[in-house]
Amino acid sequence: MKRIIFILAIVLIITSGYAQVDEKSERKFYKQGDWEFGFALNIGGSSEKTKQTSTYSDGSSQYSYTYDNTEKGFYSHLVVSTGYYLINGLSIEPEFDLNLYNWEISASLLCNLCYTFYLPQKNIYPYLKLGYGLSGEPGSSDLFEFLDIKTINAGVGIKLTYSSGMAFRMEINYRNLTGSNTYSYSYESSSGSDTYETTTSVISISFGASLLL
Known about the structure:
By secondary structure, this protein is mainly β. It is 10% helix and 69% strand. The protein has 1 helix and 8 strands. Strands 1-2-3-4-5-6-7-8 form an 8-stranded antiparallel beta barrel.
């Protein structure tokens, strides 16, 4: 999968050089001042690495140990986004996601920068996306209460326009989520704490559609 992302990135870099040379006033879609509304479904897999550091004190002695664990699982998210084109091709794109990770639901709020390349005489528009935001803890009773997981979002894909302002979108998406939690306890003769540092990498394929206004 990483090899596929690398190859697509190289193709888009080469394409962008060609497109920027030939980009003229003929650009019909994704122009300055346009709005783009989209939705998509991402399906993929995740690798979660957790480092647990525990300390314990009984008043006379203190103990500490570290435990590492890696868990792979299914990851999917439903995306709703709105994009505004600051200049031709370049848009700022707020995004809301509902995530399904190991059958537990969470939410993400992200802000992306997206560049849509222009190929003269074609209805294919390659694009690159990079964003940052916050995600919630899977399984939380309140989707918006614990948005404390730092999330990096990146994607490479294509838009296929098939009618005025309508497009089918396909994307390879990568996500990196990092967060930490500390739980402390104290009794009359002892005390301690557990710290969990978690890093999750997600690679998924996205299928969706967008409407340009």
